[in-house]
Amino acid sequence: MALDLEVWEDNDALYSRAQEIFSTQIKNGATTFGLATGGTMIPLYEKLRSSALDFSHCNSVNLDEYVGVPQGHPASYHTFMQQHLFDAKPFKATYIPNGVAEDVHAEALKYENVLKSLTVDMQLLGVGVNGHIGFNEPGTSFQSETDVVELTASTRSANARFFDSLDEVPKQAITMGIASIMRAKCILLIAVGEEKRTAIEALLKGDVTEDIPVTRLCNHPNVIVLTDLQINND
Ligand code: F6R
C-alpha cells in the first residue's frame, strides 16, 4: 500500500506539517489543488492564511457543496472557503459546485467535466465518522463520479453544528465521486479526533470495501495520512 502514515501528538505540529506539504507541492510545480471543508481543515487554512504561500497562479477545486444552500448562506461551502482561505489567499480560479443550480444533476455533470479538464496535483481530504470521503457515504460505488447524493442521518447530525438546527441541514449535496477523487496525483488525508478512529483503522487495515469509502485510498499510489490518533497498526 503506497500510504505514508504520520502520527502527530501535537495538533499544531500536525497542521504545520500539512502546511509544509502544501509548500513542497508548490515548490515542485503543483498548480491545481483539490480542497475540502469541515472542522478538520480550519486550523490548516489558518496556517495557510498566515503563511507566505502564494496561490495566485493556482486553481482550486472543492470536493462538494450542499444542495439548496445559496452561496452567500453562512453554512455554504462557498462561504466557508471564502472566510477561511480565499479572502486572504486568492487563487487564479476556484471551482465549487453550485448547489442552487436549476438542474443540480446537470451541474454535477458540468463539474465532473471541469475536473476532467484539470489535473489535480494534490487532493486534500477529511474523513467522516462513517468513513465517507467528500460526501460519498458508505455503499457508494468506487466507480462514482461527481453526482447529487443523499446525506445520511449521521452526517447530517455531525454537520448540524454549522446550522441553526438539524432541520436546516440539507438532505443532499453535490460531491466529487470516489473515482473523481482517485484521479488526483497525490492525496493528503487529515484525521483528527477519536471519533475518526474506526475509519482510520479500517483504512490502515487495508480491507478495501465500498461499505467504508475511505478504504478505497488503499488503491491509490500516493497517499499521506496525518493524524493525531495513536494507531496500533500490527
Ligand atoms: C468536506 C467533506 C467531508 C469532510 C468530513 C469531515 O468538504 O467533503 O468529507 O471532510 O465530513 O468533516 P469534519 O472535518 O468537519 O470532521
Write a brief caption for the model.
This protein has 234 residues and is of the alpha/beta class. Helices cover 30% and strands 18% of the residues. The chain has a seven-stranded parallel beta sheet with strand order 1-10-9-6-2-3-5, with helices on both faces. A three-stranded antiparallel beta sheet has the order 4-8-7.
Sum up the structure in keywords.
234 residues; alpha/beta; 7-stranded parallel β-sheet; 3-stranded antiparallel β-sheet; 10 strands; binds fructose -6-phosphate
Can you characterise this structure?
With 234 residues, the chain is α/β, with parallel strands linked by helices. The protein has seven helices and ten strands. It has helices at residues 11-27, 42-49, 77-86, 104-117, 153-159, 178-182, 197-205, and strands at 3-7, 32-35, 59-62, 64-66, 93-95, 122-125, 147-150, 172-175, 186-191, 223-227. The strands form two sheets. Strands 1-10-9-6-2-3-5 form a seven-stranded parallel sheet, sandwiched between helices. The chain has a three-stranded antiparallel sheet with strand order 4-8-7. Strand 2, helix 2 and strand 3 (59-62) form a beta-alpha-beta unit. The radius of gyration is 16 Å and the shape is globular. The two termini are 14 Å apart. The mean pLDDT is 96. The structure holds fructose -6-phosphate. Fructose -6-phosphate binds next to loops.
